[in-house]
Amino acid sequence: MKDLMIRPERCMGCRSCETACAIAHSESKSLFLAIGEKPAPKKRINLEPVPDLGVSLPITCRHCKDAPCVSVCPTKAIYQDENASMISYDPNLCVDCWTCSTVCSRFTPLYHMILVMGCWTSSMNHNRKVISRQAEAGIKCDLCEGRDMPACVEACPTHALVFAEVNEV
Amino acid sequence: MKTEIDEKSIDLASQKILQKAEEEGIETAWDRYEKQLPQCSFGQLGVCCRNCNMGPCRIDPFGEGAQKGICGATADIIVARNFLRMIAAGAAAHSDHARDAVLTFKKMSEGEAGSYRIKDEAKLLSLASEYGIPSDGKSLEEIAANLADVLLQEFGKQDGHLQCTKRVPKSRLKLWAELGIEPRGIDREIVECMHRTHIGVDNDAVHILLQGLRTGISDGWGGSMIATDVQDILFGTPQPRKSTVNLGVLSRDKVNVIVHGHEPILSEMIVEAAEDPELLKLAEEKGAAGINVIGICCTGNETLMRHGIPIAGNFLQQELAVITGAVEAMVVDVQCIMPSLGELTGCYHTKFISTSPKADFPNTVRMEFHEDRAYETAKEIVRTAVENFPNRIPEKVTIPEEKQECMAGFSAEAILNALGGSPDPLIEAITGGAVRGIGAVVGCNNVKIKHNYGHVNLVKELIKNNVLVVTTGCNAIACAEAGLLLPEASEMAGDGLKAVCKALGIPPVLHMGSCVDISRILVLASAIANRLGVDISDLPAAGAAPEWMSEKAVSIGAYVVSSGVFTVLGTIPAVLGSQAVTSLLTGGLNDVVRASFAVEPDPLKAADLMLEHIDEKRKALGLN
């Protein structure tokens, strides 16, 4: 199945994915009209800087129904609500083992990069912030249902985001 | 996601050449536009600031992320500053053009630019008297020298205000004085824009925008107006004349020399050089039936207005002209010249010749132009084109048959002449209701709007509703291509306008020149307002720029609205990231300068907005 994949080495930090995501989830679907909408449209992708790596990462969580990250979390720091609609994260239980990221298909390339660069925790931390923020707001990445291509992928000028068969990347 | 060719332009000739480009694998502006999509949201909204090296800073338009730049600048401040910089750049472009015209004028008066002459003595004398230069007992050259000195001072003036603004109706000048936006030296306003937008200077959106209006006025009633006046003295004030437009004006058997850009200083000489017997003989030797000078963009408008030189097209047709494969030389000066022409001309035999000391492009042949040997340079350029004729590759040549007759050359003077010497007949037509109002439709092409679709449909809708249209720049060329610049086009007009056009033998759309010549529209509007004893903002008139793209257009917008003309823009300016700036420009300005902007990409709806405005003004004047 196709999924959104992140190639962090290509990210220029322009935040085009964020605005495209917000517009795709607005009433009007137009930048110029969406900025006036109340409530303001919410984005499901966040550009997070990773100071240790000197890079920025467009991070997005799909809150998968059979979320592999939940099933592998040894401390239940990542857990799913009753309807299996939202993943949540409890920082008090997290031991920074990064097992969750090793099983998240969209983060696999990122995980490899981080392994190579010898940095784990800062990136994990940011990843979890996104998960928590989305859980609080009750929103999640839906891969832009109804569109052929997620808006963030279409908007990314450097192809840091791709929409591809998971095993192809 | 490739756009279909008939979605790119409404013009058949352009469509045919776009088809040729596709077949030959040649890239055009439309292809490059597609590769830019989607365009950056921060840029589109104007909320990106790069004015200092702590940035770039961006404001999150959806309110979740950063709401201030590092220095604390809000979206309002950033948007206003960016807008001001666009006005400054646009005013700089027009005014620097004007400065060069005045410098040529000065050199001519000193006998150092032998190829130039005074072609309109009457305009020289009237301008000299306007600037307070006594002409008794002086030769024309002496008067010209004195006038040139005074005009040059307008650029660096340190005391008082610009002389040209005295042409504005008194009530408007008073309003500007009260608002503190009477322009001082032309250069000073532009420099002050740059100063104010430096980090930590002017950080109040309204205060910033007022400087934008002042800078715009220094362009419209200063730089642009000086450029128009001086060019008229040097090259003659345009009078109505017929010519032809569109890509079909390229010749199959003659040497095609295209002059493209904005300044007539060089192109005037090229027009002359193309008639030089020596070069005509050379052309014959090279197997050509003659030399065909053609214009593009505003250089084209200048040579069309003064000599009836045909025009191959407007901004978005510059690449298409080369793709015909029939252009021996693409000669450019400044402004709106696509750098892509360098690579593109390399695909054909075309020589890409850049002439301005200010402007160079990739892959050009440099033939720098200086007044003292103007004619010699022009001859060298034409010679280069002629010698290139045998290199034309016949199998690569496609010239569309589409060309259209047009009538151009309606300077303010020519319009007043056509009216019998005073604006009264036009005023009577307006007060009597035959002419509902005046629409000034100007501006560029923009790939975001189907080429010429915005221009032609807006203008057609206006004339259908009895609005007399005055036009300049790329809109004028679009109208010409659509056949709207002919007296016969009055058949497309409403009954009232049709009758007026027929009586005067004029088209319903009057070509008033290049984009610096919007100053002519201001002069005409002033003449009408003064005659009626009202302000420009009281006139049943409205402006539009349906396909604008350049910074010059932003400056034009600023001075047209400052002058009291409600103006509809067809493409969205980068201001929507600030609610405050947007609502000021589209509404609040009414309380300041009694005119404002509107944005409407649909030309028919834009025409409705203009008609609504015209009707309101008619009502206020007690006309029905």
UniProtKB/TrEMBL annotation, chain A:
SUPFAM superfamilies: 4Fe-4S ferredoxins. This is CO dehydrogenase iron-sulfur protein CooF. It comes from Methanosarcina barkeri MS. Keywords: 4Fe-4S, Electron transport, Iron, Iron-sulfur, Metal-binding, Oxidoreductase, Transport. Signal peptide: none annotated. Residues 2-31, 51-83 form the 4Fe-4S ferredoxin-type domain. Its EC number is 1.2.99.2. One of its GO terms (molecular function) is 4 iron, 4 sulfur cluster binding. Gene3D superfamilies: 3.30.70.20. InterPro entries: 4Fe4S_Fe-S-bd, RnfB_subfamily.
TrEMBL record, chain B:
[4Fe-4S] cluster 2 binds at C49, C52, C57, C71. It catalyses: CO + 2 oxidized [2Fe-2S]-[ferredoxin] + H2O = 2 reduced [2Fe-2S]-[ferredoxin] + CO2 + 2 H(+). Keywords: 4Fe-4S, Iron, Iron-sulfur, Metal-binding, Nickel, Oxidoreductase. The keyword Transcription regulation does not apply. Its EC number is 1.2.7.4. [Ni-4Fe-4S] cluster binds at H262, C298, C336, C444, C474, C515. It is an enzyme of class 1 (oxidoreductase). InterPro entries: CO_DH_a-bundle, CODH, HCP/CODH, Prismane-like_a/b-sand, Prismane-like_sf. [4Fe-4S] cluster 1 binds at C40, C48. GO terms for biological process: generation of precursor metabolites and energy; response to hydrogen peroxide. It holds the Pfam family Prismane. CDD domains: CODH. GO terms for molecular function: 4 iron, 4 sulfur cluster binding; anaerobic carbon-monoxide dehydrogenase activity; hydroxylamine reductase activity; nickel cation binding; peroxidase activity. Its cofactor is [4Fe-4S] cluster; [Ni-4Fe-5S] cluster. Homodimer. Belongs to the Ni-containing carbon monoxide dehydrogenase family. CODH oxidizes carbon monoxide coupled, via CooF, to the reduction of a hydrogen cation by a hydrogenase (possibly CooH). This is Carbon monoxide dehydrogenase. It comes from Methanosarcina barkeri 227. The lineage of its organism: Archaea, Methanobacteriati, Methanobacteriota, Stenosarchaea group, Methanomicrobia.
